[in-house]
Records
---
Amino acid sequence: MSLSLLQPSLFMSKTRIPAQMIIGSWFFLTAMAIYFSLWVAPLDLQQGGNSRILYVHVPVAWMSIVVYIATAINSFLFLLTKHPLFLRGTGIEIGAFFTLLTLVTGGFWGRPMWGTFWVWDARGTSVFILFLIYLGALCFQKLSVELASIFICVGLIDIPIIKFSVNWWNTLHQPGSISRFGTSIHLSMLIPILSNFANFLFFTSFLFVLETRLLILSFLESSWTERVGVDKYCIIPSPGGSGRTKD
C-alpha cells in the first residue's frame, strides 16, 4: 500500500488546527473535570472523600482498554500492509501509563475500603496482566516491530477477560455499573467520570494525531531529499552527444 492511498494531504489539511484552540480546549476540559470531581459530585455516604479517587480510576481504566484496542488495530494494519505509517509506538507507552495509573489509583482506593492496597482477584489480576503485555510490547519493539505487533494482537484476548471478569468469577470488584441497558451510577457522580474520560480521550487523540502528522512530514521530507539527490547527480545529454553531470 503506497502512502498516496492513505491520502496524507487530506489528513494533513483536516488536522491543521491552531495550537491555541487545542490548548484552550484541553484547559477547558481539564477545568470542567476538576470542577465536577471536586465541587459538583457529592461525597459517597459510605466511602466519603475516598470516592473521588474513582473519578480518576474509572476513566483511566477505560483509557487503558481504549488505547490498547486502537494500538491493536494499528498493529494489525501494519502486519497487513507493512506500511511505515503504522510504525507508531506512542500508543504502547500511553497505554502502559494509563494501566499503571489504573493499578495505582485502584490501590489507593482499595486501602481504606478493603484494608489492603492489592488483592489478587480476577479484575485486578487481568488488569495487571494488561500492564505486563504493554511492557512486553515495549521490549519486543526494540527487537522486532513485527514481533511486537503480533504480541499486541495476541494480547487482545485479555480485553474481554478484563471486561467480564466480574461476571465470570467472584471478585471484590462490583459488577459493571454501565451497560447497554443503562447505568446504576447517579448522574451527579457519572458526570465527573465522563468529564475526566473526555479529557483523557481528547489529549490522547491529540498525541496520536500529532505523531501521525510528524510521520507524514518525515516521509515527505525524505522523499524530497531523495529527489534533490537524484536531480543533482543526473546525467544531462549535451548537443555533441556526450553527457555531463548536473551538480
---
Amino acid sequence: MLTLPFHNVTLVRVGILQVECHPYLNQSKLLDFCKSKDIVLVAYSALGSQRDPKWVDQSLPVLLDDPLLGAIAKKHKRSPALIALRYQLQRGVVVLAKSYKEKETKENIQVFDFELPPEDMKAIDGLNRNIRYCDFQFAAGHPEYPFSEEY
C-alpha cells in the first residue's frame, strides 16, 4: 500500500484472478489462497454454462437444475440463478453474470436484496464436484495447459 502525502490518496496494489467458479466447481482452495495473498477471485460461468455443444460436454449436469439449489431458491422465494450468484458474493468472489435478456438482468440485481444463512452456504459448498464446464480440451496438449494442476 502506498499513501501519497498530498490529496489524501491511498493506492492499493491488488491482483485479480479470473477463473471458472460455481457451486459445482467452487474453487475453495484457490479462493483461500487468493484471500491470503490479497488477490481478488473473479468468477466466470458462475451460473454453470450456456451449454454450447462446441464447448461443453452435454453429459454434464445442468447447474441451475440442481435439486438443492432449487429447494434453497424456493425457501427464499428466489431463482436458482440468484442463489448461485448470492453464494459467490457471500464467499467474497466477484461474479461476472451476463444475460441478453432484460428480465434476467433485472433479476440478477436482486442478488443484493437478501442473504443466505450459514446452513444454506454449507449445503451449497457440498455441491462441489470439481466439474469444469469450460475445460478447453482442444489445448490439453499444450505445455502450459492450466487444468492439469489441482488449482
---
Amino acid sequence: AETMSVPPFSLDKPRYDQSKWIGRTKHFFATTNPIYLFTSDSALKDSLDKLQRFKEGRSAPGTTDEDLWKARTMRDAVVHPDTQLPIPAAFRVCAFVPANIPICAGMLMTAPTTFNVLFWQWVNQSYNAGFNYCNRNAG
C-alpha cells in the first residue's frame, strides 16, 4: 500500500494544491465529509485547542502534521469563518446532500396534490433559507 505524504502544516495555506483540479476535489471531499455531522463539542474544542497551541508555538509533544491537518479540516467544516461559532449540524455544508435526499424524495415521490406541492416546497425553501443564513458572509 502506497502511503501518502503529509505536507507540513500551515494555518494559512491549503493542504491540497488549489491550482489543480485534484487538489480542489480533495479539499471539497475533506470538508464535506458527513462524519462532521457527528462532531461533538469536546472533539471540536480539542481541535481548536490543538490549532491554538500550534499558533502560539507550543504544540503538545507528539503532535503530527496529520493531527493538525485533521484539526484544521474539522474547524473548517464545523466553525463559521466569520462568526467563529459552530454551525448547527443540519446546516453545515457536509449536511447539504444528506438533508436534501428526503426533501427531494418528498418533492418527487408524493402525489402532486396541492397540499403536497405546497408542503414540500415550504420544506425545501425553509431548509435552503436556514442553510444560506448559517453559511452567509457575516463579515
